[in-house]
Amino acid sequence: MPELIIQATDALGWVGIFAVMLFAAPEVVMPFLGYAVYRAEADPLCVLSAASLGATLGSTLIYLAIRAVGGERVRAWVHRGSRWHLIDEDDLAQVNAAFLRYGRSIVFFGRWVPTVRSLVSVPAGLLPMRLAPFLAFTFLGTALWNGVLLAAGYLAGSSWDRLEAYLGTYGTVATALIVAAAAGFVLLRLRSRMLRR
Questions:
Q1: Mean pLDDT by 10 residues, the chain (197 residues)
Q2: Are 71 and 128 in contact (CB under 8 A)?
Q3: Tally of domains within the chain
Q4: Residue among 196, 194, 187, 189 nearest 91 (CA)
Q5: In sequence order, what are the residues at sequence separation of 6 or more whose Cβ sits closer than 8 angstroms to the Cβ of residue 141?
Q6: Which domain holds residue 72?
Q7: What is the DSSP letter of 120?
Q8: Is 35 exposed, middle or buried (0-12, 13-18, 19+ CB in 10 A)?
Q9: Is 110 exposed, middle or buried (0-12, 13-18, 19+ CB in 10 A)?
Q10: How many CB atoms lie within 10 A of CB 159?
């Protein structure tokens, strides 16, 4: 990935950073860009702006795709019911209530957590959360996290690549917790369905 970042930024500058951040994890990209700032090869404000705008667009594309599907279709599918459905209307109502109350915080802080940063666009698009606050809180949360990673890469200097091990552990733990929570939900719901029968 660093080679791709180098090629993109060398060839296209901030446009390359913007394009890379459409799909790349900031934990991989931003420390290297912090090192580039450390070497005075890049402007920190330009880097942060391009990276945050690219990541925001990537999340917004997911939001728009889910919104196109429509929450009504999902609710209708759940309402029809099936023995294979592991979610029901009560689950949707709880998610809806939580997102209506804490949606902006979920979108903002979700940008700091691997896997969650992509998943959070799904309920935001299904409810749907209005586009303006979604964009605002997505950009703010993304910019803050990107700024932390950029500063870490700058402070690490030529040792920026050592951050990869720590950030990799952080990403692995976060993903493992999410997978464990999802697996626990599935197992409990399957057990509940079996007991009902």
A1: 61 80 86 87 90 95 88 66 61 77 90 85 84 95 95 87 76 77 69 64
A2: yes
A3: 1
A4: 189
A5: 107, 108, 109, 110, 111, 112
A6: 2-196
A7: T
A8: buried
A9: buried
A10: 11
